[in-house]
Automatic annotation (TrEMBL):
Residues 4-238 form the Bacterial bifunctional deaminase-reductase C-terminal domain. Keywords: NADP, Oxidoreductase. The keyword NADP applies. This is Bifunctional deaminase-reductase domain protein. The keyword Oxidoreductase applies. One of its GO terms (molecular function) is 5-amino-6-(5-phosphoribosylamino)uracil reductase activity. It comes from Paludibacter propionicigenes (strain DSM 17365 / JCM 13257 / WB4). Pathway: Cofactor biosynthesis; riboflavin biosynthesis. GO terms for biological process: riboflavin biosynthetic process. Pfam families: RibD_C. It comes from the Bacteria.
């Protein structure tokens, strides 16, 4: 396998919803009336600790919708008037790649260049550093901003990030061996449709959210026989918590 192993770790309601409502991010406040329907902290901590103990993770990956919603206002950046060619190539400064003490990467898939707060991750954890996976569709001012902030990025895909090509670069250039993502929805849907997921861990809470537009576990193109078919899974293990939450672990059978 000439790419990193990719593991999904995500929580969901029994009906497969990964948030209470549309356009929610990991930073969205939770109304007090919804708190009884959230996972118990001890269940999530056990789930999180156990999944991470099973793998030697060196790359943490999130989808941009986990960080900024489609209705959030995008931070304005100065226009770029320099050489465009200097922007539309991988930006991997040696001093960041070889940063002393860095053991992992923290990453966002952001093909449209919307996540612009300059977060570098190492302030929270000195053993990691931020890197963006972006596309040739990203605005010049966004790429220039990342370079000014010394935030590395890998660029693939004309309209959106080419995950297969990005993972190939991560494996061959940065020596990444195992990716963990906690993003369901569009990112998980893209990963499963592109045959890039190797293991799935879902912590189901004993609740039903419903909703017509509420994000789901795998938001992906519909089945299109014979071009797009379902994915078969191989059961590994499961764990039932006293709260009624259930962790299920599956291997994705390769097509």
């Amino acid at each position: 396998m000439n790419r990193p192993k990719v593991v999904l770790q995500v929580s969901s309601s029994i009906d497969g919803r990964i948030s209470f409502m549309p356009n929610s991010t990991m930073f969205s406040p939770i109304d007090n009336s919804l708190k009884p329907f959230t996972l118990k902290d001890e269940d999530w901590k056990y789930f999180d600790k156990t999944v991470k103990s099973l793998h030697e993770i060196d790359f943490y990956l999130e989808g941009s919708n986990m960080l900024i919603s489609d209705i959030d206002k995008i931070k304005e950046l100065p226009e770029y008037s320099g050489n465009r060619e200097l922007l539309y190539q991988d930006y991997l400064p040696e001093k960041i790649i070889n940063r002393e003490g860095r053991r992992t990467w923290t990453s966002v898939v952001d093909g449209r260049g919307r996540f612009r707060n300059g977060y570098k991750a190492y302030f929270d954890n000195p053993e990691t550093y931020m890197i963006h996976l972006t596309s040739y569709n990203a605005p010049q001012e966004y790429l220039a901003f990342l370079q000014r902030e010394e935030i590395p990025y890998i660029i693939t895909g004309k309209e959106k990030v080419n995950l297969t090509e990005s993972f190939d670069k991560l494996y061959n250039i940065l020596n990444v061996k195992c990716i963990l993502t906690t993003s369901g929805g569009k990112l998980a849907g893209a990963l499963i449709r592109e045959n890039l997921l190797d293991e799935i861990n879902i912590l189901f809470s004993p609740s039903i959210y419903g909703g017509f537009q509420t994000p789901i576990l795998f938001n992906s193109p519909d089945i299109e026989v014979p071009k797009i078919l379902p994915n078969k899974l191989r059961y590994i293990e499961s764990h039932v918590f006293d709260s009624g939450s259930i962790w299920v672990r599956y291997e994705v059978i390769k097509k």
